[in-house]
Amino acid sequence: MAVKIRLARHGKKDFAFYHIVVADSRAPRNGRYIEQLGTYNPNTNPASIVVNSERALYWLGVGAQPTPTTRRILSYEGILLKKHLAGGVAKGALTEEQAAAKWDAWKAERDAKVAAKVSSVAAGKRDAAKAAKEAEAKVNDARAEAIAKKKAEEAEAARKAAEEAKAAAEAAAAEAEAPAEEPAAEEAPAEA
Q: Where are the domains of the chain?
């Protein structure tokens, strides 16, 4: 029986997460499995991975083959490095202390990379929010300026209309006060 370490899909459409399982290679993707080793959620940044490393090492030791994606996940978590170091200790190439020192150095380096990525993602989010806020402020200022300009134009037009109405009223009053010219008397034609 060929045993695989692979991913079983769960979740909903466009928001999948995966269980890392040990299963017979002939079993369906989400079907029966022998043991669940952990979970993998690619929806977070960075991806959330939880793996029982002792059980994963056991299954790798008895010959279970990881799929390519699962191999990358196990490598990212350092499980394949632990297996490699354990093989070196078994062959006598390394001592337990040397293997532990190499593992600790690798773990510290990986933790530093993860922390740097988390901080860069957080900084990127802050910068994006700041840029969005500045862009919104520019749009609001432009909109307020346009409204103020329009109100000023309307006030100017109303002032001109009031002046014209006042001038027309004054002209009408002046015309009413002026003495009406009497029509010139028509001279009667002289009879010849």
A: 3-94, 95-170
CA 140/CA 17 separation, integer angstroms: 41
- How far apart CA 84 and CA 93 sit, in angstroms, is 11
165 is written with which tokens? Answer: 């109405």
Count Cα atoms within 13 angstroms, Cβ side, for 121.
Answer: 10
Q: Which residues have CB under 8 Å from 155's CB, separation 6+? A: none
Give the number of other CB atoms < 10 A from CB of residue 179.
5
Which CATH number describes the domain made up of 3-94?
Answer: 3.30.1320.10
Query: Per residue in 97-153, pLDDT tens?
Result: 998 899 899 889 988 988 998 898 889 889 999 999 999 999 999 999 999 999 999
Type of residue at 50: V
The DSSP bridge partners found for residue 9 are 18
The label of the residue with tokens 């910068």 reads 127
Residue 182 has pLDDT above 60, yes or no: no
